[in-house]
Write a structure and sequence with these properties.
By secondary structure, the protein is of the alpha/beta class. It has one domain: Rossmann fold. About 30% of the residues lie in helices and about 30% in strands. Helix 3 packs across helix 4. The longest helix has 15 residues. The N and C termini lie far apart (about 40 Å). The structure holds zinc ion (ZN). Zinc ion binds next to helix 6. The site of zinc ion has 8 residues, from helix 6.
Length: about 200
């Protein structure tokens, strides 16, 4: 899929929104991306994950592991297309763990799948978890990579789309200067543009 087609899909489903947003980090941004908005349509999830499938289908993947919660829908769809097991890791006392009887068997070739990679922290934890159980991480796939610096997971990295999002400190935000009303993503409430 071409980058433009992917972006169109993000925009038409509301996954990618333009405006003036206050991110959880406290920084301001003219863009907000919520991957779940596009993945909620199984046909689009199938389409996007199809690209990951095409990239890794001959890598002899045995198992897909995804960090919860964001990675679950991607991991499940990629596993379905690859016809392999798909499991997810979740936090237990702040540590990424495999629960629910999920296993990584010795020597299994693992593809780690995530929706959005920002710092890569959760993915890295899953990579370590898989290795600690004797698995071999062959790749890391994501729908969107928003990392500022390239991240080395020690395996083939395949982000469907690299997306750099401008962020501003509230004190130097050009949108604040123009008095554009600010929105906290996830809520419909429009706040005053006060810093
Ligand atoms: Zn602002």
């Amino acid at each position: 899929m071409e980058k433009e087609k992917i972006l169109d899909l993000f925009k038409s489903t509301g996954a990618l929104q333009h405006g003036h947003f206050r991110l959880t980090s406290g920084l301001h941004s003219p863009e907000y991306f919520q991957c779940a908005k596009v993945l909620q349509y199984p046909q689009y999830n199938e389409l996007l994950c199809g690209e990951i499938f095409r990239h890794f289908h001959d890598w002899r993947v045995d198992l897909v592991v995804a960090p919860a919660i964001g990675g679950i829908m991607v991991g499940q769809e990629v596993a379905r297309q690859l016809r392999v097991r798909g499991v997810f890791a979740e936090r237990e006392d702040k540590t990424m763990s495999l629960r629910r009887g999920f296993e990584v068997k010795q020597g299994e070739r693992v593809l780690v799948c995530e929706d959005v990679v920002t710092t890569g922290g959760s993915v890295q934890e899953v990579v370590e978890l898989v290795k600690a159980r004797g698995g071999v991480v062959v790749g890391v796939a994501s729908i969107v990579d928003r990392s500022r610096e390239p991240i080395n997971f020690g395996a083939e990295s395949f982000p469907l789309l690299k997306m750099e999002v401008p962020v501003y400190h509230p004190d130097s935000c050009p949108l604040c200067k123009e008095d554009v009303p600010i929105v906290k993503p996830g809520s419909r409430k429009v706040e005053l543009s006060a810093k």
